[in-house]
Amino acid sequence: MRHPTPFGFRNVRRCYRDAVRGRRARRSGATPALLLIRERIDRRRDGGCTAAVPRLAVDSTIVTKADLTKRPDEVASMFDTVAPAYDLVNTLLSLGNDHLWRIATTRAVNPAPGERILDVAAGTGTSSASLARSGAHVVAADFSPGMIEVGRRRQAGNERIEFVQADAMDLPFEDDSFDAVTISFGLRNVVEPRTALAEFLRVVKPGGRLVICEFSTPPLVPLAAAYDFYLSTVMPAVVRLASSNNPAYDYLGDSIRAWPEQRIVAGWLRAAGFERVAHRDLTAGIVALHRGVKPIAAGR
To answer: Using one digit for the tens of pLDDT, what is the confidence trace for 218-268?
Structure first.
């Protein structure tokens, strides 16, 4: 996650409108090299996406699209390819709501100065930076070397953030070593999310907090139908404007549709051993914020 883009919410809406209406033709001819960024600046009279849009040029013959089997090598490779443009595309696809979701997640974690917080699937470290502003020390863990590389570069100089390549299902940390564990939009990409939850319970201190921010199922049927239309129609159009790796974002839509509803995820937290489990919907249920606490007795 990252701060809102400089062109603002109104112009993000223009990008969406233009994507749906097909006003901008997709431009081809990118150099076919993996992890090559092409900075594109589009100065439009109608005030559209006037920011520099990093476009990831990827040879379509070697792009790996992860599928719902979520093979670790495919998932890591996919995120490696989208890492340079990941934050910007997230802002476009969420209509700028990623900033609000990050604020809600940070408040739920409630980081305090001196605490040690594990941010799993931290990506480029934008969510970690938000947590570190409190004075906490944040370990930003991610499975993708490409994400880690971009994150270290962008967060260079921030002594409160430490990047570590790690598998959520086999965390390289001691028991009871963090005051809080959080993961935003990453649990859905884990092969065995319940195994990851058990790992989160292991590494968090007794009385420590778990906060999960993840895409969810809107409870209202009309909204759920509209959201499905967005995932299948609008999102692919927007991705064509901002990223060359369309298959990666096909996986995004597939994985969101396959993800269980809120009460099932809450049940997973309870089964893993967390107590005081609760969740609340954000943006009408498009996203859900799940919380749990490790029992004090678990550390005795």
So the answer is: 999 999 999 999 988 888 777 777 655 556 667 778 888 899 999 999 999
Task: Work out how many domains the chain is built from and give that number.
Answer: 1
- End-to-end Cα spacing for the chain: 36
Of 44, 41, 38, 25, nearest in space to 245 by CA = 38
CATH number of the domain residue 271 falls in = 3.40.50.150
**Whole-model pTM?**
0.74
Q: What angle do CA 265, 109, 66 make, to 5 degrees?
A: 45
Q: Is 167 annotated as a binding residue?
A: yes
Q: Write the pLDDT tens digit of every residue in 163-214.
A: 999 999 999 999 999 999 999 999 999 999 999 999 999 999 999 999 999 9
Residues 136, 160: contact at Cβ < 8 Å? yes
Least Cα distance to 117 among 28, 170, 58, 183 occurs for: 183
HEC readout, 180-239 = EEEEECCHHHCCCHHHHHHHHHHHEEEEEEEEEEEECCCCCHHHHHHHHHHHHHHHHHHH
Residue 124, annotated ligand binder? yes
184 in a known ligand binding site = yes
- For residues 264 and 193, the answer to whether their CB atoms sit within 8 Å is no
Question: What tokens does 130 get?
Answer: 């938000």
Nearest CA to 199 out of 220, 217, 183 is that of 183
Q: Which amino acid is at 183?
A: I
Amino acid at 9: F
Domain span at 62: 1-300
Angstrom distances, CA of residue 26 to CA of 23, 242, 287: 10, 10, 30
Distance between CA atoms of residues 54 and 40, nearest Å: 6
Q: What are phi and psi of 70, to 5 degrees?
A: 55, 45
Sign of CA dihedral 68, 251, 280, 99: positive
Query: How far apart are the C-alpha atoms of 152 and 165, rounded to whole Å?
Result: 11
